[in-house]
């Protein structure tokens, strides 16, 4: 590839239409969505159906709040054991409803903890990410992002 198209320029029609921070977030979001540059955590979630064993939207928001600052990490949040493991196979970590009130945690395609009570599962996921050496504190991630932006500029 010749490198053409590796950058993104978003220019508002009116200069005051968007704040610089909004343009930065949109640019990095486009690069993340096209898998050209991972600057934040990637979340994969299935649509909820009758088999979903927990409030998928609420749990996804909780996990995103705790882990959204981990660039290059992908987390799949799946509501049930029926389709969850197959749909989350490319993720680094999986959070899957295994039974009513219980969650199973995965590293890649391998289940590593089963039947974790819903109330403890988010903390257990964070500990799993830490034990696999992929955790960074929010401050550390923010410093790395600032450095990457300065290098890219």
Automatic annotation (TrEMBL):
Q: Name one Pfam family in it.
A: GcpE_C
GO biological process assignments: isopentenyl diphosphate biosynthetic process, methylerythritol 4-phosphate pathway; terpenoid biosynthetic process
Which domain of life does this protein belong to? Eukaryota
Keywords assigned: 4Fe-4S, Iron, Iron-sulfur, Isoprene biosynthesis, Metal-binding, Oxidoreductase
What molecular function terms (GO) are annotated for this protein? 4 iron, 4 sulfur cluster binding; 4-hydroxy-3-methylbut-2-en-1-yl diphosphate synthase activity (ferredoxin); metal ion binding
Specify the IspG C-terminal domain's residue ranges. 42-130
Instruction: Write down the InterPro entries for this protein, in alphabetical order.
Output: IspG_bac-typ, IspG_C, NO2/SO3_Rdtase_4Fe4S_sf
What is the official name of this protein in its record?
A: IspG C-terminal domain-containing protein
> Origin organism of this chain?
Coccolithus braarudii
């Amino acid at each position: 590839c010749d490198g053409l198209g590796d950058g993104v320029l978003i220019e508002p029609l009116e200069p005051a239409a968007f704040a610089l921070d909004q343009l930065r977030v949109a640019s990095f979001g486009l690069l993340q969505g096209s898998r050209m540059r991972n600057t934040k955590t990637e979340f994969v979630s299935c649509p909820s159906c009758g088999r979903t064993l927990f409030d998928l939207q609420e749990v996804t928001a909780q996990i995103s709040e705790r882990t959204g600052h981990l660039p290059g990490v992908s987390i799949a949040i799946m509501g049930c054991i029926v389709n969850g493991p197959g749909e989350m196979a490319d993720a680094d970590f999986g959070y899957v409803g295994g039974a009513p009130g219980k969650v199973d945690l995965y590293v890649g395609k391998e289940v590593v903890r089963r039947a974790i009570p819903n109330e403890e599962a988010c903390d257990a996921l964070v500990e799993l990410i830490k034990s696999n050496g992929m955790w960074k504190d929010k401050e550390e991630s923010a410093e790395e992002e600032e450095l990457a932006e300065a290098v890219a500029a």
